[in-house]
Amino acid sequence: MIDLKELSLVSGKAAWMAYLDIYCLDADGSLFDAALLSAVAAFSHLQIPVVSLNDEGRIVLISEDNGGGKLEKEPVNKEKRKLKLATIPLSLTCILHKNYILADPTAEEESIMETLVTVVLDSSSQLVSLYKPGGPVLAQTSAIQDCVALTRQRLKELQKILNEAISDMEVD
């Protein structure tokens, strides 16, 4: 999702480290899907601040209220910028129960499942990841293909939700 070159400040010497903690306040199924959507929204909103290197080679944050005064060192990056994401991963979890596939299950539905499949696609509908833990059901290839197809159908809806969340986070 993140092109590591986007985090580089001085090639081979300094780079940003991005940490993300996700706290679940209420889980009603498909927790991975919600967490991934939240992570993508958070990183889409992330801004890289203007910094410079001091005499010891340490990164120094240049405050926005510098007042146009002269800087001791030339900034490493000229202006604050948003982190550009290389790809936007979006997921859909499906449960497999008997001969049925149920997309985006609730916690109650997950409790009766035989197994689950989580499909992660990028914004161009290319498969990024497929997760199917063990379980008593050996998923048929057709069931996996159906889950991927359901994820492709859900992609536009997820992109709309993501775009709305990002625009709600924008501050003037």
TrEMBL record:
GO cellular component: cytoplasmic exosome (RNase complex); nuclear exosome (RNase complex); nucleolus
Main localization (coarse): cytoplasm
Residue span(s) of domain Exoribonuclease phosphorolytic: 6-49, 88-150
Example of a GO MF term: mRNA 3'-UTR AU-rich region binding
Location within or outside the cell: Cytoplasm; Nucleus, Nucleolus
Alphabetical keyword list: Cytoplasm, Exosome, Nucleus, RNA-binding, rRNA processing
UniProt KW Cell inner membrane keyword: no
GO biological process: exonucleolytic trimming to generate mature 3'-end of 5.8S rRNA from tricistronic rRNA transcript (SSU-rRNA, 5.8S rRNA, LSU-rRNA); nuclear mRNA surveillance; nuclear polyadenylation-dependent rRNA catabolic process; rRNA catabolic process; TRAMP-dependent tRNA surveillance pathway; U1 snRNA 3'-end processing; U4 snRNA 3'-end processing; U5 snRNA 3'-end processing
Similarity comment text for this entry: Belongs to the RNase PH family.
Protein name according to UniProt: Ribosomal RNA-processing protein 43
